[in-house]
């Protein structure tokens, strides 16, 4: 029996892909490969960065501190002595440092012009007085004749009028003579009270003007310590402070004073205010012109002094970075600044003594970031 042939194996017929389908397949394969490689190369999450910073521990009680000022001893009352008229000064009898008494001659002007004016006024007065005497005699005769009826009333009236006119002329010239006498007396300058000469403003031979300072005299008695004070200290100083004053070259020489005068306007050049402190009983060693140091306690409430580098800004307001002692993480906290200085500022609200704030590196911190102290907080 003849065996029948085996059936032919079925053939797999692969239909050719269209171009668009082939492009999609290749794109899918490339995407899967890229995703696989990217997953293999992705680094593991890094640990949060710990930034090194410097910090300081807050101490309380920065307010009420004492500041020192440098000033000079001056007389409370000073007089600038000057002539009342123009002229050439021929003599000055005192110099800086001399003591003068009331009525003492200080300086003289050339009196020639004033002497001539006085002589002329006196001569005119003498002539007027002679005419007045003649008019008085004439009036007396007319008065007697009128009484007896030997002269007309009109002549009597003329004599009376002439007498009145002559007397008025005498009064006028007498006043002019007194003025000329005063002008002559003004050529001599007198001290109007006791004191010490602290400055001179003219030398013999110079032509001086009326009111020009010839010498300056410091009155004896009460003296002032004069200081130039900044606006910042003016804001924080108490209303009626007691000032402790000591000689700069000998601090053992001390005195106490009270502020008696404060300039209402700051100096245009230095932007400081002139303050005069009255010393009622100054030691003898505190001479005029001595340099002194004045100590004044500021009337600021207690605050916390922080280095200037700690100051940060949050929405236009001052703030500082505070370090949590448990987690070493920082947080930004708003504060109220009471006083600014070049190196420090005083905080009145927002911090507590013992807290630690960042003083260097504040510009690169973010809330919650952990930090590492470069040095121990102080």
From TrEMBL:
The record places domain Multidrug resistance protein MdtA-like C-terminal permuted SH3 at 313-363
- Tell me which residues make up the Multidrug resistance protein MdtA-like alpha-helical hairpin domain: 118-187
For this UniProt record, the keywords arranged alphabetically read as follows:
Coiled coil
Q: Which SUPFAM superfamilies match?
A: HlyD-like secretion proteins
Which residue spans adopt a coiled-coil conformation according to this UniProt entry?
118-183
Q: Which NCBIfam families match?
A: RND_mfp (TIGR01730)
Name the record gives this protein: RND transporter
């Amino acid at each position: 029996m003849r065996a029948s042939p085996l059936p032919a194996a079925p053939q797999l017929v692969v239909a050719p892909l269209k171009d668009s389908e082939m492009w999609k397949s290749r794109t899918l394969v490339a995407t899967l490969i890229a995703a696989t490689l990217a997953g293999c190369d992705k680094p593991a999450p890094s640990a949060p960065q710990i930034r090194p910073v410097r910090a300081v521990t807050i101490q309380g009680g920065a307010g009420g501190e004492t500041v020192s000022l440098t000033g000079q001893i001056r007389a409370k009352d000073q007089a600038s002595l000057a002539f009342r008229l123009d002229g050439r000064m021929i003599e000055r009898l005192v110099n800086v440092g001399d003591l003068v008494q009331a009525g003492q001659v200080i300086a003289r002007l050339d009196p020639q012009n004033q002497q001539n004016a006085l002589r002329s006024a006196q001569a005119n007065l003498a002539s007027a007085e002679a005419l007045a005497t003649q008019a008085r005699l004439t009036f007396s005769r007319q008065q007697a004749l009128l009484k007896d009826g030997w002269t007309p009333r009109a002549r009597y009236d003329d004599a009376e009028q002439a007498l009145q006119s002559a007397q008025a002329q005498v009064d006028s010239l007498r006043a002019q003579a007194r003025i000329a006498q005063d002008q002559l007396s003004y050529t001599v300058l007198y001290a109007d009270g006791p004191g010490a000469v602290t400055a001179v403003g003219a030398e013999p031979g110079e032509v001086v003007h009326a009111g020009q300072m010839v010498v300056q005299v410091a009155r004896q008695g009460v003296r002032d310590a004069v200081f130039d004070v900044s606006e910042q200290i003016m804001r924080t100083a108490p209303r009626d402070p007691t000032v402790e004053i000591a000689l700069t070259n000998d601090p053992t020489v001390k005195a106490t004073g009270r502020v008696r005068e404060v300039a209402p306007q700051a100096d245009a050049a230095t932007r400081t205010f002139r303050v005069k402190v009255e010393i009622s009983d100054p030691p003898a060693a505190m001479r005029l012109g001595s340099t002194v140091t004045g100590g004044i306690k500021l009337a600021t409430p207690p605050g916390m002094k922080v280095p200037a580098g700690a100051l940060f800004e949050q929405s236009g307001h001052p703030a500082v970075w505070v370090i949590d002692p448990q987690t070493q993480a920082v947080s930004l906290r708003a504060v109220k600044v009471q006083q600014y200085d070049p190196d420090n500022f005083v905080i009145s609200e927002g911090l507590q003594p013992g807290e630690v704030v960042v003083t260097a590196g504040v510009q690169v911190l973010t809330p919650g970031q952990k930090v590492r102290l470069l040095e121990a907080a102080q």
